[in-house]
Write a structure and sequence with these properties.
about 10% strand; single chain; 9 helices; alpha+beta; four-stranded mixed sheet
């Protein structure tokens, strides 16, 4: 079992619960701390499939992980983790896809470019860009561009970590 987080307190707490047999996870399971609100639980095989895909960040965003809010009570976390059917969901490919314009917007956001001005110069109206942005954020389940940028930065840090 792997815990990937920069939060030392979270990592130590999870390791303590695992040692005390409060949480039972397999060796293939991974706990990821990607944002301020959620912990993502998945498997190594799912992460490998995402990383090897053509658009790994997009695939990560569109994948339906088991997400647990960080402010969830510990007893509820134990109950959720002991419910094993979440592993079956990890084997499915991401079904939702972004349109060509939504992918273009996502790539401009990731590259930290002037997304609106670049898309407007490509012949799109500012309202159209706004609509694509809204649809893309809804599909990837992110509340704002700022949050999406934070998730991308954490993803980039995760991808650059040396393998254990």
């Amino acid at each position: 079992m792997h815990i990937i987080t920069e939060d030392v307190f979270l990592k130590n707490g999870l390791q303590t619960f695992i040692k005390q047999k409060e949480i039972t996870l397999d060796n293939n399971d991974v706990i990821l701390d990607f944002d301020n609100n959620f912990i993502i639980i998945t498997t190594l095989s799912t992460l490998n499939r995402i990383i090897k895909s053509d658009n790994p960040f997009e695939c990560y965003l569109l994948h339906s992980f088991l997400k647990i809010k960080k402010n969830t009570k510990l007893t509820d976390i134990f109950r959720i983790l002991n419910y094993k059917s979440w592993r079956k969901k990890q084997d499915h490919e991401c079904r939702i896809t972004l349109t060509r314009k939504e992918r273009l917007l996502l790539s401009h956001i990731i590259s930290a470019g002037k997304k609106k001005s670049m898309l407007i110069h490509s012949g799109l109206d500012i309202k159209t860009v706004s609509t694509h942005k809204y649809n893309m954020l809804r599909k990837v389940n992110q509340p704002s561009i700022a949050t999406l940028t934070q998730v991308h930065n954490r993803w980039k840090n995760f991808r650059n970590q040396p393998a254990n």
